[in-house]
Structure formats: structure tokens, C-alpha cells
Specification:
With 273 residues, the chain is an alpha+beta fold. It has helices spanning 4-17, 140-152, 161-172, 190-208, 213-219, 250-253; strands at 23-29, 40-41, 44-45, 48-53, 56-57, 63-64, 67-73, 80-82, 87-93, 109-111, 118-120, 222-227, 242-245, 263-265. The chain has one domain (4-265). The strands form 5 sheets. It has a 6-stranded antiparallel barrel. The protein has a two-stranded antiparallel sheet with strand order 2-3. It has a two-stranded antiparallel ribbon with strand order 5-6. Helix 2 crosses helix 4 (190-208).
């Protein structure tokens, strides 16, 4: 009989050898009662949108009878209307060996907006401090993995949601090509900056540390949710990219707040003086 650790090692080796492809799902970001955390309020920025994946579309154009899911924003350049239209999304895993060609930031080249040439994706923050001094992500996958670790911290007692969200955006922030412009990234200072840098350092430590079955099990919980193409870094009608936790921990479900009506969440806070 093959032992469980050996079996898991064999499975992990096979997964690493063959890139994991995305699956597709019907998705709607709903923001219904009991389900809106994300955005910038007097309590800070960050958290999860209440949404649904799969299910069927009712006469009002809403998704029903699907899986209720929290969607965590990882995309600073694009926006979302709440409730969003029902759209088709690619769900891309983030464990080692995953194929990120259907994601916003995981492609080697991308157009900034429609009509622009396809150019290499340039991340604004090249490296992050960690226990060894500095960690330079070797791929967009490691940046998404840092974002996933940061998302897991929303459930921590006394979590600084603004620092977590700013850290997620910092891990995946990209620079526009010459001649293009993007939204102004928020000025981060004071305690929020201190907390964000500490969180980014811990995320870098986790991602750059020794690989293990437990770490891959952790990353296997997360999937990137990206509107089916064409996709751009700053598309005018593109729904922002999210990460979901699947299965969703019950402890995260109790975090939801409430808001009703049509709402456009713009992540872009004006830079503080």
C-alpha cells in the first residue's frame, strides 16, 4: 500500500510537471444584504465582495442558486459595478505550476488598453523585504501567492484591512507604458504603511520559504477570477480581477457587512497630501 505522504508527493510532482489550466464559471458580484465588505469607508479599505459563481440567470438578470462566494480585489487598475452583470470568468489556480495565461498580470505581454501595442508587463515594485533581506518574485505566480497570503490575514484578530488591501495592490501594481496613464496609487503613510510593509515582508517570507505539501495545500484553496478576454491591464469596460477562496472558510463568511443598491467601487483613493 502506498502511504499517504508518498501519494501526496507523487500527486504534487505531477501537478508541478503539468501546468494547471483555468476552468470557466458564470460569475456575478452582487453586494446584497449581508455581503459587502470591500471598498473604502471610514473604517479603511479592503475586504471581500459578496458574489456568486455558477447557478442560473433569473428574469432580472441576476445569478441565482449558485455558490455564494467572497471575491477579494487584487486589481487596482480596473473597477466593478455592484451588482455587476453576469459574466463569464476564468478561474485560475495559483499552486506551483499553474498556467496564468488567462489572468491580467500573469501574461508576459499585455496591451494597456484597447488599441495599444502588446508590451511586457512591468511590475512597479521589483522586490520586497523579507527575513533574508530582499525577495524578488521570480514570476507573477509568486505575486499572486503573496496576495493570497495577505487575503488570508483579513480573518486575523484586529486586522488592519487598509494595510492588507494596500499590500495586495502593491504586490501586483504595474507601471503604465510611456504615453499611457493609470489611476494614481494611494499615498500610504503612518501606521498603515508600517503595517503594510510588515505584512508584505511576512507574505514574502511565506512564498520564498521552503516548499511543502502544507504550503501547496494552502495555495490550492485560492483561484484567480478573471473576466474572459480580451483582457487588458487597464480596460475601459473590464471588470476588475479577484481572488476567491474555495472552499470558503466559515470564519470568513461571518465577516460580511451590508449595503444595498447600485454602487461603483473605485479603489482609487486620492493621494493624501
Amino acid at each position: 500500500m502506498v502511504s499517504r505522504p508518498i501519494l501526496r508527493l507523487v500527486i504534487g510532482t505531477l501537478l508541478a510537471a503539468a501546468p494547471a489550466a483555468a476552468t470557466t464559471a458564470s460569475v456575478q458580484i452582487q453586494g446584497l444584504t449581508g455581503g459587502f465588505l470591500a471598498g473604502c469607508t471610514v473604517n479603511g479599505c479592503g475586504g471581500g465582495f459578496q458574489g456568486m459563481k455558477n447557478g442560473t440567470v433569473d428574469q432580472s438578470g441576476n445569478l441565482v442558486d449558485g455558490a455564494s462566494t467572497l471575491f477579494y480585489c487584487v486589481d487596482f487598475e480596473n473597477d466593478v459595478y455592484i451588482p455587476s452583470p453576469v459574466y463569464t470568468a476564468n478561474l485560475t489556480p495559483i499552486f506551483n505550476g499553474s498556467d496564468l495565461s488567462n489572468t491580467v498580470y500573469g501574461r508576459a505581454d499585455s496591451a494597456w488598453a484597447p488599441g495599444d501595442p502588446s508590451l511586457p508587463v512591468v511590475f512597479t515594485n521589483t522586490s520586497f523585504s523579507d527575513s533574508s533581506g530582499s525577495f524578488t518574485p521570480s514570476s507573477a505566480l509568486q505575486r499572486y501567492q503573496m496576495a493570497a497570503w495577505l487575503i488570508s490575514q483579513y480573518d486575523a484578530p484586529g486586522a488592519d484591512k487598509t494595510a492588507i488591501q494596500d499590500g495586495i495592490w502593491s504586490a501586483l501594481e504595474v507601471s503604465p507604458p510611456v504615453g499611457d496613464s493609470g489611476p494614481a496609487f494611494p499615498a500610504i503613510k503612518g501606521k498603515t504603511k508600517t503595517d503594510m510593509n510588515l505584512l508584505l515582508s511576512e507574505a514574502a517570507n511565506y512564498v520564498s520559504g521552503p516548499n511543502s505539501v502544507a504550503k501547496q495545500d494552502f495555495f490550492d484553496q485560492f483561484k484567480i477570477v478573471t473576466q474572459v478576454g480580451p483582457i487588458y491591464l487597464n480596460g475601459p469596460n473590464q471588470i476588475q480581477e479577484f481572488i476567491i477562496i474555495n472552499p470558503e472558510p466559515s470564519t470568513l463568511a461571518v465577516l460580511t457587512g451590508g449595503i444595498l443598491g447600485l454602487l461603483l467601487w473605485r479603489k482609487r483613493r486620492a493621494a493624501a497630501a
